[in-house]
Every structure is written in structure tokens, then in C-alpha cells.
């Protein structure tokens, strides 16, 4: 009996026991679904994060004021003052890529905006910006226009609002442009509406009200605003040089003492993406571990079923051996059956895993994730199925090949 005939015999045995094959395949399918589903969801989330940062680019960086107390020499120093307006504007004027620098300041994160009888929840971010803010922050306008130099120079009461603010204050058939809204007691004319972002921003980018920078300073009254800076360079290869140039210039402006830490923080846009990529690596390891444990349980169940199959087919094994089948051919038949059952279950598990994984990533990313087809994990899933089939079938196959043909023929 050659390998081809042995394969046919194994397949005939699988077809003749359809119910057992289906139930056994379902056990494997559940294990593969958990493995491929988790890893697909992680890949989908990674894709969504990459897309979120793609517009901003890796050639941008943020300069922010200190977040807490600084320590030097084991002693806590006094609180470092934030970046003020003069320092931020000096940086923008002196930085070589000044046209690619935006200065902005957050007035409050709990503003309430009103229009006629409608009002938002008190969770709107009010930010003072310049005319470079939207382009550098990769924010697109759904309608209207950006701030003009005239708006900024004359501190006109104009505003660009987020999509959630617009949908809350205005009816669907109502055009927000040129309408006047009430922001912290002042009347501001809407000149632009931002496209919906959602996703990993948690909706914060949709709850924005942007006003000219000078207007924000006036709104702050006696409060001290912290001014943040975002810069970008035309070429990716210049990013590292630009960051170091920005660091040196900012230290000079802030009068940082030589040998002391920076009194500000510089974060490159791709750092958050890299951080999530590192986290997703650990999540993949955890997901693979969970899938492996599930598959281990499935393989033990399959081994038990194959042992029962050997016991039920003892007389058949005796007949085959008496007709000249070698122990090797007996082992091959049972191994082929185990592997084919695993592959059938694996294919079903891969299809379910891809669907469930993409569904999870879509829900978490609020519909901004792309549909991911994880070719690598599909191949891994098939290889794992073959490995599980070998693991589950090798002992029952070995036991079947060791049966004595005379004793097997006597088995009832």
C-alpha cells in the first residue's frame, strides 16, 4: 500500500465518520479562532494607530512645558515656569524652519459652547492657535476656511469648531458657517468645521473650538497660559537634526544652565506610535500564549478522540496488517487523519478569527480601522494545525502500529 492509497484510505475514514470529524474540527476551530482572532485584532489596532499618525508624520515634534517638579542631585527643585508667549514667539521667529512652526495654547478643557437655545456639555477644549496649526496637526476642514493672517493680526472673533460641537449646536440641515456662537461669554463667528476624527483621540479632536491666539490670551485674563510649540521639517532625514537644533535654541531662550536638564520636553510624533508598537508586541505574545493554551486543550481532546478511534478500529487494523500493511503505513494513516481534521478545523477557525478580529478592532477604533487580512498569521495558523495534528496523532498512530495482528483480529 503506497502513500497515495494510504491517504485515500484516511480520507475515506474521515468521511465515513462525519459527525465525529465535524465535532473534532470544531474543537480545533475554536482554538485557531482565539489565536488568529486576537492577533488580527491587534494588527487592526496597529493599522489604525499607524493611520492616525500617518498624516502627522514622523518629521514633526512638540515642545511642551514641564509637567511636574524637576529633580537634580537628589533634591527637588522649585517648579519650573511654563513656556510663555514671548519665549514661544521668539522660538518661532528664530527657528530656521519658522514657517513650519505652530504656537498654540489651551485656554480650558471644560468650556461650554452655546448657540440659540442649544449648548454643549462642559467638556469642549478651547485652544488658541495660529494659521499653521491645522496643517501641522493634520486637521482637515469639512467646510469653511482656515484662519487668515488678517484674522490673527486683528484678533477677530472667528472660530473653527470640531465636528461634534457642530452636530450638537446645529441641526443636520443647518449650515454652521457664519453663525455666531457663544464661547466663554463672547460672540464668535464660525468660519470652519473640522472633519470627524474619532478613533484613538477618544473624540477629543471632535470637541474643539479654535480661536486666534491673541483672543485666547485675552480670554485667559489673569491666568497664565502654557504655550506649546509644534514644528515640522520638510524631509524625514532632517528630523533628528531639527529636533536637536530646536533643543539647543529652546535651552538658549529658556536660559537653561549648562549641565542641568531641559526645562521643557520635546516629543517626536512617531514616539507615541513606536510606544504602541512596543505595547502591541507584548500583546501579540500574550495573544499567542492564550491561543497556544486553547490549542493545547484542543490537541488533548483530539488525541483522546484518536485513541477511541484506534480502539474502535482494532479489527480493521488487524485485517490490514494481515494483508501486508507495515507499521509505518498504519502510522501514516492515523497521522494523515489527525492532520486533515486539524486543517479542516483550522481553515474554519481562520475565517472566524479574521472576522472576529476585524470586528473587535473596528469597534475599539470607532470605525476608523482598516480591514486587515493577516496573511502571516494565516500561514502560522495552518502550520500550527499541522503541528497539533502531529502532536495529537503520533501516540495513537504509534499504538495502532504496535498492535499484534492476531490479537487484533480476535478483538470484538
TrEMBL record:
Its main location: membrane. GO terms for molecular function: transmembrane transporter activity. Residues 21-247 form the MacB-like periplasmic core domain. Keywords: Cell membrane, Membrane, Transmembrane, Transmembrane helix. It is found in: Cell membrane. One of its GO terms (cellular component) is plasma membrane. The chain crosses the membrane at residues 21-42, 282-305, 334-356, 376-398. It is a multi-pass membrane protein. Residues 290-405 form the ABC3 transporter permease C-terminal domain. Belongs to the ABC-4 integral membrane protein family. PANTHER family: ABC TRANSPORTER PERMEASE YTRF, MEMBRANE COMPONENT OF TRANSPORTER-RELATED. This is Putative ABC transport system permease protein.
Amino acid at each position: 500500500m503506497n502513500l497515495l492509497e494510504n491517504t485515500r484510505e484516511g480520507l475515506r475514514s474521515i468521511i465515513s465518520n462525519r459527525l465525529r470529524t465535524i465535532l473534532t474540527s470544531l474543537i480545533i476551530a475554536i482554538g485557531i479562532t482565539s489565536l488568529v482572532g486576537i492577533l488580527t485584532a491587534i494588527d487592526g489596532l496597529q493599522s489604525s494607530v499607524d493611520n492616525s499618525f500617518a498624516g502627522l508624520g514622523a518629521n514633526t515634534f512638540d515642545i511642551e512645558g514641564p509637567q511636574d517638579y524637576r529633580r537634580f542631585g537628589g533634591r527637588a527643585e522649585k517648579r519650573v515656569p511654563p513656556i510663555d508667549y514671548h519665549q514661544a514667539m521668539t522660538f518661532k521667529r528664530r527657528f530656521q524652519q519658522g514657517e513650519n512652526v505652530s504656537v498654540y495654547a489651551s485656554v480650558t478643557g471644560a468650556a461650554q459652547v452655546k448657540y440659540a437655545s442649544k449648548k454643549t456639555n462642559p467638556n469642549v477644549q478651547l485652544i488658541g492657535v495660529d494659521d499653521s496649526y491645522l496643517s501641522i496637526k493634520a486637521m482637515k476642514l469639512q467646510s469653511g476656511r482656515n484662519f487668515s493672517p488678517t484674522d490673527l493680526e486683528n484678533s477677530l472673533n472667528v472660530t473653527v469648531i470640531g465636528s461634534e460641537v457642530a452636530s450638537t449646536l446645529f441641526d443636520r440641515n443647518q449650515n454652521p458657517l457664519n453663525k455666531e456662537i457663544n464661547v466663554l461669554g463672547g460672540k464668535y463667528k464660525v468660519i470652519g468645521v473640522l472633519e470627524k476624527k474619532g478613533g484613538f483621540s477618544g473624540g477629543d479632536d471632535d470637541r474643539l473650538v479654535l480661536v486666534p491666539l491673541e483672543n485666547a490670551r485675552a480670554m485667559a485674563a489673569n491666568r497664565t497660559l502654557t504655550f506649546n510649540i509644534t514644528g515640522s521639517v520638510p524631509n524625514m532625514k532632517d528630523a533628528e537634526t531639527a529636533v536637536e537644533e530646536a533643543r539647543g535654541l529652546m535651552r538658549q531662550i529658556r536660559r537653561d544652565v549648562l549641565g542641568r536638564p531641559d526645562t521643557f520636553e520635546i516629543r517626536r510624533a512617531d514616539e507615541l506610535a513606536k510606544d504602541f508598537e512596543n505595547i502591541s508586541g507584548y500583546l501579540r505574545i500574550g495573544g499567542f500564549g492564550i491561543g497556544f493554551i486553547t490549542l493545547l486543550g484542543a490537541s488533548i481532546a483530539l488525541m483522546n478522540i484518536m485513541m477511541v478511534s484506534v480502539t474502535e478500529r482494532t479489527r480493521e487494523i488487524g485485517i490490514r496488517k494481515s494483508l501486508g500493511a507495515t507499521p509505518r503505513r498504519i502510522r501514516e494513516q492515523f497521522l494523515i487523519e489527525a492532520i486533515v481534521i486539524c486543517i479542516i478545523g483550522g481553515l474554519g477557525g481562520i475565517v472566524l478569527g479574521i472576522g472576529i478580529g476585524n470586528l473587535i478592532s473596528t469597534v475599539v477604533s470607532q470605525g476608523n480601522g482598516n480591514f486587515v487580512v493577516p496573511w502571516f498569521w494565516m500561514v502560522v495558523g495552518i502550520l500550527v494545525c499541522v503541528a497539533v495534528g502531529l502532536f495529537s496523532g503520533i501516540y495513537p498512530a504509534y499504538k495502532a502500529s504496535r498492535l499484534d495482528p492476531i490479537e487484533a483480529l480476535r478483538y470484538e
